[in-house]
């Protein structure tokens, strides 16, 4: 099969795949024990969204470092594209997460370490775009944004690893500590749908990301073409 | 009087330098060379990119296309070390208003690791036309012409082998113009000098000249 | 040789910051005014007796860091913003190595923070009736906290000075980076207040010091890019 054909076919395949995941999440997978009603089914969407938010953060970091090394404007476009998707998916993960929290624990927000982490990820993405908005010069915008992305990335692990550990060492009886870790064993049909969803969401990210970068490439070529 | 004992061998070559800011082209394929003992005059109307060219030569702005290279006898100098060989005065380069003229020069001399003695720096300030009684006042209380003199002193304080002057006589009176002429004449013996100007008196210093168009 | 000259250049920058700041007092006024105002409002409206006994450790530690952090953010971006505003940035860029500039400005911010701690914390303890059992532990937490906060605020200040220079942008960019740090600092302060044993602040100290180290090392690599952009 040649490349252009594959390119038109892949999005349709992705579409079918996601439809299958949605159908599987509601009709194929059994409901999990120990959760209120059918609430556990949200895991098929919530966790992959959170995963994509983190994946986008990593892609953004790699593109930012590449920009700082080679100063290729396309790398800046890559970093921005990843951050845009990261922002969208971290919003989705936050919303689905608090819906689940409302059903399971009775309130939308419980200050579980994971909730705090995604909230900070959201803040970082927001700050990243606030910074980009504030710099009119393209080259300067690209390097300042890349520097901030690297700085944000190195601070993130401290939130995920340091804060919860100290938190629990002082408060061993937190309500969230026991249930917040999603430790339930997955039944095999659940696992199939869950993994399929992870693959699907990753594919969705790759597709949207490629579209965004292609668009940036066309814009760049056009502005350069108009110049000469 | 500063004594320039060494003749520097630093050359600055630039080839096909272009600069765009967004959709606006400021410089288009400019080439030239700065070498010891010669004065390059960059002329052209306002907005023609004189300051941008000097910024590119100073390593403060990256050209969109083209190359700039600093070479001494042994070979090219890394971009991150260009500043060590440079003295620059430009309208958008201020000195610290909260400090006195002497404190400013002491600060820059310490940064550049050159003799920061009071006698030498006072003599330098006298030489750019600031009488001794003014040296202790904070620069914020100076007139714009006096500030310009402090900026010039800052630029030549470490006897740089490459001197870039952007509109060096701006805000200066006739005596001030003579001061600049004296600095350029003294540097001509050993430094590579570039002057961006529209003043016909300063264009006369040129050994080479680049005319930028809008 | 190179190291010792770097130190003397860094001290030159630090000395310049001090002389200029003592004459203009822009950062000092901003930080001092903010700190004193919030402290007075908190002490007057809440005071030592309005918090229930079991809430005291949590509320007092958090309030202290809210005062310290926001006072700090009101002034610490000045080190770089004022260089851009007064057009001295280019002069400095052409006269000094980036490492010397960053180190000098970092030290200046660090000293401002330590001075802020030294004035506000005793006042806060007196006005709020905050009984601290582990004074040594608290001092360690405050000192390491200043080292870490100064690192983050200095590099973010360098970034926003090259952007719009607005203090709003400074707050937006600093917030997500220091939230983990603030949480650890509040926990450490609470631990120190509750017990005289040095050991209770060790987990917090480990977090703060490693965060400060990582931020400083990253900043040393990033600063030349930001500064020369």
Helices and strands in order:
The complex is a heterotrimer of chains A (228), B (214) and C (229).
Chain A (H helix, E strand, L loop, with lengths): L2 H26 L14 H28 L2 H33 L7 H22 L3 H33 L4 H5 L8 H40 L1
Helix pairs in contact in A: 1-7, 2-3, 2-5, 2-7, 3-4, 3-7, 4-5
Chain B lengths: L10 E11 L2 E11 L4 E5 L6 H9 L6 E7 L14 E4 L11 H11 L6 H10 L16 H13 L5 E5 L7 H15 L3 E5 L3 H4 L4 E4 L3
Parallel strand pairs in B: 3-7, 3-8, 5-6, 6-7
Antiparallel strand pairs in B: 1-2, 1-4
Helix pairs in contact in B: 2-3
Chain C lengths: L1 H23 L1 H20 L10 H20 L2 H8 L3 H5 L4 H31 L6 H28 L4 H28 L7 H27 L1
The share of residues in helices of chain B is 25-40%
Structural class of chain B: alpha/beta
| End-to-end distance of chain B | 40 Å
Largest interface, and how many residues on either side? A-C, 31 and 36 residues
What does the model show?
The complex is a heterotrimer of chains A (228), B (214) and C (229). Chain A is 82% helix and 0% strand. Chain A has 228 residues and is mainly α. Chain A has one domain (39-227). In chain A, helix 2 (43-70) runs antiparallel to helix 3 and helix 2 runs parallel beside helix 7. The model of chain A is unreliable at 165-184 (pLDDT under 50). With 214 residues, chain B is α/β, with parallel strands linked by helices. In chain B, 29% of the residues lie in helices and 24% in strands. Chain B has six helices and eight strands, in the order βββαββαααβαβαβ. Chain B has helices spanning 50-58, 101-111, 118-127, 144-156, 174-188, 200-203, and strands spanning 11-21, 24-34, 39-43, 65-71, 86-89, 162-166, 192-196, 208-211. Chain B is globular. The termini of chain B are far apart. Residues 1-6 of chain B have low confidence and may be disordered. With 229 residues, chain C is mainly α. Chain C is 83% helix and 0% strand. Chains in contact: A-B, A-C, B-C. At the A-C interface, helix 4 and helix 5 of A face helix 7, helix 8 and helix 9 of C.
